[in-house]
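User: structure tokens for this one?
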Amino acid sequence: MTANDAPAIPVPDHPTILAALRLAARAPSVHNTQPWRWILDGTRLHLHTDADRLLTSTDPLGRQLVISCGTMLHHVRTVFADRGWHTDTVRIPNPQRPDHLATIEFRPWPDPPEGVHPRALAIDQRRTDRLPLDEPEGFADILPRIRMLSSPHEVELDVLDESARPRLAAASSQTGALRGNDLLYQTELEWWAGHPDTAEGVPPSALVSDAEFARVGVGRVFPSAPHSTRRAQLEDRARLVVLSTGGDSVTRWLHTGEALSAVLLECTAAGLATCALTHITELPTGRRLLTGLIPRPATPQVVIRVGTAPEDSEMIPPTPRRPLTDILTVLNNH
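Assistant:
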């Protein structure tokens, strides 16, 4: 058999790849920086970090940057699975190039697991909800599913006891106070948050007022939205979920992002509202507190608020996304 007779490597057609990446780019990221770059080399997709989007004060080690890229990786794999493609994924294919996070090869997958389709549909519906939430309806039913979805990524999922809420709110407040005196952090935050009509960052519509934030208590202190009292009668009753790993490394951060994506999409598919929080794990004091609240020695990475948004509440508008031409490079191999 000559090289010309070799069977072609199966790969989705170009419109399918573009559509999948465009949808998967709805993945959440720290400050909505969207810090990912994709390269299509003809038969494989390569995921890289975008170093220009590193938050040097907020995230000097790039932990949240890599977690963000992990959410995008899982979103991509979910969309391709829903469209009948298995994604064989090698993570950190070159240890000498930790910015190269993953390489994906494709093969047909006519019968993906039944949970894939609702999670793919949830990508467009998911929002980060920073407002007060009711208790999550049906949480006891969804909890085993989100634990199971985290497990293949070697990420442990724990639900904090209600007694932990005031301690976490205090840690959140302490982190906000420490960061309030950090000029570089504040400059970075103001660069990425509160500006309308941009393709990145956290727009005013996704921010909360001081009064609204006071009824939640656990969250990053962003620039305040204009005075508002949405869900005015509601004190936050969201459950607090912690994702933790067996240590800190680029691979573990990437897996954390993948597990985070799976949890957010599964919760969204079940009609629940979510808000992922990474500010408490930015500083050693917050990490130590969380380590003491989970039942095993582990490294806490992300806290997720999971709740139910009141039925009469306004739909939170989608946050903006960069055009596909900014995040995808197609190599011409001919």
